[in-house]
Amino acid sequence: MAVTEITKPFLLLSTRPEDDAAEAEYRSFVSMMELQPEFLIQKRVDREPLGPIILDDYSGIIVGGGPYNATEPDKTDHQVRVEACLNTVIRECIERDFPLFGACFGVGVIGSVAGGVIDRHFGEKPGCILVDVTTEGLADPILDGMPSRFPTIVGHKEATRALPPGATLLVRGDVCPVQMYRIKRHIFVTQFHPELELDSFRDRLEVYREAGYYEPEEFDSIMDSCSGQDLSTDNRLLLNFARIYAG
């Protein structure tokens, strides 16, 4: 089925306050999901409250990444508001097992709502790593057509120490063991960034050069570490999500 055969759009909930980063994230998801722009609606939760979200108006919900951390000890009023908006949607998605895909920051907000343990024990500096698909992952349609080991991009201060009750581990890593999991049947969370390729990763690094994820002088070595890696493999996750839930 072509992803263009779609009757309802997907909804991207963005939390990046930087306009360039938010716009680039939107373009990445549109590209990797092979959607026409009108079938991915972006709502900038960082700018204004969401208001009521009617899930049945959408094929699925996506929670993008961002500079926030769910484990931040001193959250600003702005972050508290953003998380409250996201949590309302996430709770309903979990209750209904409504299609939901969360990347990076999604680990913190979705995992917390679902009862997982999120802390800073398994943080990873930005860079390319190899991850392994579990037996359960190999049997899940969301990973259809993907190899059992693939390169991907990470960069996070917090991570999942313990899965939410009943969640299924789909992809594991060495430094950060929980790289992707499923809640119920239709809710997916990745620690890595399946929406990024080399050029978009470079742009993302530039935006967050002073955000404490890495030392600014490490920029070139981080990019060198990704040289020669096929970073298009994990894009398949988003295409599969679009194809499975379109319409």
TrEMBL record:
Keywords: Glutamine amidotransferase. The keyword Transit peptide does not apply. PROSITE patterns: GATASE_TYPE_1. Residues 55-200 form the Glutamine amidotransferase domain. It comes from the Bacteria. InterPro entries: ChyE-like, Class_I_gatase-like, GATASE. CDD domains: GATase1_1. One of its GO terms (cellular component) is cytosol. This is Glutamine amidotransferase. It comes from Corynebacterium meridianum.
